[in-house]
Amino acid sequence: MNQLRPNSFRLSPDARGRFGPFGGRFVAETLMPLILEVEQAYEAAKRDPAFDTEWRRLLTHYVGRPSPLWYAGRLTEHLRQEAGKGRGAAAPEAHGAKIYFKREELNHTGAHKINAVLGQILLAKRMGKTRIIAETGAGQHGVATATACALFDLPCTVFMGATDVERQQPNVFRMKLLGAEVMPVTSGAATLKDAMNEALRHWVANVEDTYYCIGTVAGPHPYPVMVRDFQCVIGEETREQVLAAEGRLPDALVCAVGGGSSAMGLFFPFLDDAGVAMYGVEAAGRGLDTAEHAASLNRGRPGVLHGNRTYLLQDAHGQITEAHSISAGLDYPGIGPEHSWLHEQGRVQYVGATDAEALDAFQLCSRLEGIIPALESAHGLAQVIKLAPTMPRDSIIVLNLSGRGDKDIFTVAQHLGVKL
Amino acid sequence: MSGAATNGSRIAGRFAALKQAGRGALVTYLQAYDPDPATSLALLRGLPGAGADLIEVGVPFTDPMADGPSIQRAAQRALKAGATLAGVLALVRDFRAGDAATPIILMGYYNPILAYGIDRFCTDAAASGVDGLIVVDVPPEEADEIEPQAKAAGLDLIRLVAPTTDDARLPRVLAATSGFVYYVSITGITGTRSATAASLEQAIPRIRQHTGLPVAIGFGIRTPQQAAAAARLADGAVVGTALVDTLAGSLDEQGRARPETVRQVLDQVRGLAEAVRDTANRVA
Questions:
Q1: Disulfide engineering: A294 pairs with which of A108, A144, A283, B32, CB 3.0-4.6 Å?
Q2: Closest among A156, A89, A81, A144 to A118, alpha carbons compared
Q3: Which residues, by range, are in coiled-coil regions (chain B) (predicted)?
Q4: Which CATH architecture has domain A69-109+231-415?
């Protein structure tokens, strides 16, 4: 079949929750009625101005939005010098794009996750649900969910792979302080994929009173579109802020992708602006050509897992393989279905950054900008470090600095051989 | 008669014959390749003699979303033993060489089928002697993914009906079902808890109002008494986790089959079958 390039990239999903061939609702019958209930409730909430007003009130006064758009001047200058060095004497000043950070790490709880969590918790309240469950990898989504549950006085259970519990101790403790119950998941590789399996199993057994607050743009419809809609606040603000600062749209947007919620939130409002290039950065782990990475678009193929059709890391027989990344938040063998579609449409370029590149970027950003980025965001930064020197000086890159790195200092110290 | 009709009718034929005999079916579930292909084949071959009326063969998958810990571990053992969908079909072919009568239903998840290729899978499954499919994560909303190919190959597509499937939704689910209806008796995953008799006594007539297909009850049926009660109330009882647990309990420390593994599982099936058949005698 000939694939027509759509007039707009902003019209998906269709009524079945499909982005082209991706997405859908691949869940067991027990969950299906519930998924339909969430969809109906979300459609109704979208039409209710009071819902939006309440969500925006929380974003302003509780989360601290809008998050700033920061001109990363020292990083920009540093990379301009690098560009000069790389090119010898030939027009050193011609290259090195201006770099802006969209500072989602300044949000309450330290990452973009809270944007969609508050929307979903308001939805859960509307639906009359009295318990919240969530899965978490790095713990950022778990902390955001535990936070919102504390605020709304809802019991909260967070499923977290035992491996992640081990490497994200600070966030585990945060969740507990916030009153949440953390359930370590030991099946499989005991990371994000397994936490999501377990959350889905728990949900099936507690459908009456429980709302499942998914942390990314994956899962069965309507989650990918709903989480994207809430995260679009990132891109909408960025658009206004960059127009105010520069009088024009950026030339490139860069964001790390695990499930891909921070990237969808930044990209979506710009998808129909043909002049804006977009880079989703997958975790290349120890290298794209090793067996240890989490690059489902670069090295996987389409399949069905966790309720949607999307690119997955899998073997020839359709068994899901384990992902690897230094960053617990990117350690997932799938990706949101809309990213799979944008990848096949060629609208977004998906590239990789290795553990080592992310570690370097993590340190560089800390020293040059006084901002310790999350290891997830450091993957995006690694791409900026490669990209900026290849672009003209008057061009503009916006990086989604999706989270802060306080949670990662133990992991980083360990990798750098520092004992804390 | 076409091959398609022959395959499709094996399930219907078995339920009809049991109805004539005045009893419900004992449907057993074990995961293929658990804990190794040879033991798995020996179990499969022994099941009809031990009293299984229909056989569900679980297709191992790394991420069995609807399954509890027992079947998750079974899948891990099976995958470690080298299970693939092609291997599972070969197992069914080997079984069919010695048994032309007992219906075989493959139960599993969609991704291994996708990886195999839907068209080729349906053709190969039918040719291997498979009669029906339960694809847990393909609900009626996504039925067009596999329904045309399954129909063309003469495979029944057995759908799950859950306590959460309300009256508005039920006709849609049932319309997409052939062979029999699998009633998931609890809101939950396999092998975790059991439905109350009262909830089943309400649920089964509700389903029967909408369909003439046989109804089997599964999830949470462990004991001969529960199996007998379910088979009496509906047209069949599915026992899975309880058998998988017995199998797991019979393995050595390395997870390998012991000489008594096959006998222990089949003895349990005999106990279940006796209870299901006793019911028939008492009713008669």
A1: A283
A2: A144
A3: none
A4: 3-Layer(aba) Sandwich (3.40)
From chain B, the residues in CB contact with A187 under 8 A are 69, 72
Whether B260 is catalytic is no
Q: By the 8 A CB rule, do B153 and B4 touch?
A: yes
Residue range A82-88: mean pLDDT, rounded: 69
Token readout for A205 is 């057994």
Return the half-sphere exposure (C-beta side, CA atoms, 13 A cut-off) of residue B82: 7
Among candidate residues B53, B56, B124, B245, the one labeled active-site is B56
The average pLDDT across A23-34 equals 95
The yes/no answer on whether domain A19-64+113-224 falls in CATH 3.40.1390.30 is no
- Our CA-based measurement puts residue A38 at a distance from the nearest CA of chain B, in whole angstroms, of 14
Contact A26 B68 (CB under 8 A): no
- The domain spans of chain A are 19-64+113-224, 69-109+231-415
Per CB-CB distance under 8 Å, the chain B contacts of A193 are 63
Give the structural domain span for B54: 3-283
- Whether residue B184 and residue A316 make contact (CB cut-off 8 A), yes or no, is no
- Total number of domains constituting chain B: 1
Which of B85, B142, B170, B182 would you mutate first to test chain A, the one with the most A CBs within 10 A?
A: B142
- Quick check: B251 contacting A, CB < 8 Å? no
Query: How many Cβ contacts (< 8 angstroms) between chains A and B?
Result: 119
Cβ atoms of A28 and B65 within 8 Å: the answer is: yes
CB contact under 8 A, B112 and A305: no
8 Å CB contact between B51 and B274 = yes
Work out the average pLDDT over B253-274.
97
| Chain A residue closest in CA terms to B164 | A30
> Distance between CA B9 and CA B11 in Å, rounded?
5
Q: What count of residues does chain A have? A: 420
For residue A17, give both structure tokens.
């929750």
Task: Please indicate whether residue A390 or residue B6 has the higher confidence score (pLDDT).
Answer: A390
Asked if A134 and A121 count as a contact pair (C-beta separation under 8 A), the reply is no
Residues of A in contact with B164 (CB under 8 A): 29-34, 207
**CA-based nearest distance B115→chain A, Å:** 5
State yes or no: pLDDT of A3 exceeds 80. Answer: no
Mean pLDDT of all residues belonging to chain B: 93
Lowest-confidence region among A229-233, A259-263, B186-190: B186-190
Domain containing B178 — which CATH number? 3.20.20.70
Catalytic residue status for A104: no
- Residues of chain B with pLDDT > 70: what percent? 95
Q: From residue A329, give the alpha-carbon distance in Å to each of A191, A223, B30.
A: 9, 18, 36
Q: Measure in Å the smallest separation between the Cα of A326 and chain B Cα atoms.
A: 23
Contact A28 B188 (CB under 8 A): no
Q: Give the tens place of pLDDT for each residue, B92-115.
A: 999 999 999 999 999 999 999 999
Q: What is the ipTM of this complex?
A: 0.94
Q: Taking CB atoms and an 8 Å limit, are A201 and B66 in contact across chains?
A: yes
Q: Say how far residue B136 (Cα) sits from the centre of its chain.
A: 11
Among A329, A251, A395, A24, CA closest to B137: A24
pLDDT value of position B192? 81
Contacts with A200 from chain B: Cβ below 8 Å = 65
